[in-house]
Amino acid sequence: MADSAFFCTLSHEGVLAVRGADAGKFLQGQLTCNINYLSDNLSSLGARCTQKGRMQSSFRILLESDGVLLAMATELLEPQLADLKKYAVFSKSKLTDESAAWVRFGLDHGDAALSSLGLELPADTDSVVRNDGLIAIRVSPQRAELWVAADQASSIKGKLCALLTEGELNQWLLGQIRAGIGQVMPSTRELFIPQMLNLQAVGGVSFKKGCYTGQEIVARMQYLGKLKRRLYRLQLEGSELPEPGTQLFAPTHNSSIGEVVIAARGEENIELLAVLQAEAAESGDIHLAALEGPALHLLDLPYTLDRDKEIQR
């Protein structure tokens, strides 16, 4: 095992289930990702938007049994469930909170542990493998989620403990930040359109699937607009984590230039993802919470934005 290998319980998210004969058809008109691309071996990131293209939630979605499962921030699950049920009235689909039915683990450099469970997970991001009721998903290089039925969780955790160090959720979120994967949280609900979180760059938006709620705004931004705000990775000295939604400022502007998306403690400093005005970000003079607040420094993301490539999905 690599020295950096660890696992942790993904306690910050819940699981929304949509099951039934019309589950896929119903969600195809609700979500940014293409349900038809999903398979037993492929999952996706995605979002649900308002009519104005603002993200109400973001999630990872996968097929399971007679429907699909969506993992999202726990606090967003009940509002999304209530809202989706309004549109599912005439659909042969049933929406429920299945958070209690699943325990999800995040594994960093844990492929050997997955192999010991009979899960040979490909390196390709979004790939899925299943064995004996277990589901493993590649979420970014060297990082995987392991979905376990609740009644198996204690046994599986024991096996993981024998092979991996049990880490903290902060370590997992740090890996997510370094992978450049943003996430809608309660305090940032309906604040961003998908492109502001670079969701189209990590496979969470399909521009070939046809209509869905908010699609007109999202497509217009991709084809006709110039994206003025997008996701950046930054570093902040100190130990106090800024909350999602905390505003960022630049001396060259008289108002906020962006908001924190998620943050985690690194080895020496705090790392975070934030949506920033591109013009202000390029100046490099960015401060937390106030013009005189702590300075932030830009870090690299592991991908580039490529509109021509993105619209092929």
UniProtKB/TrEMBL annotation:
Point out the signal peptide segment: none
What InterPro entries has UniProt attached to this entry? GcvT/YgfZ_C (IPR029043), YgfZ/GCV_T_CS (IPR017703), YgfZ/GcvT (IPR045179)
Binding annotation for substrate: E145
Q: Name one GO biological process term.
A: iron-sulfur cluster assembly
The membrane spanning regions, by residue number, are none
Domain of life according to the entry: Bacteria
The record, for NCBIfam families, names: ygfZ_signature (TIGR03317)
Q: What is this protein called?
A: Folate-binding protein YgfZ
Say which species the protein is native to.
Pseudomonas prosekii
The top of its lineage is: Bacteria, Pseudomonadati, Pseudomonadota, Gammaproteobacteria, Pseudomonadales
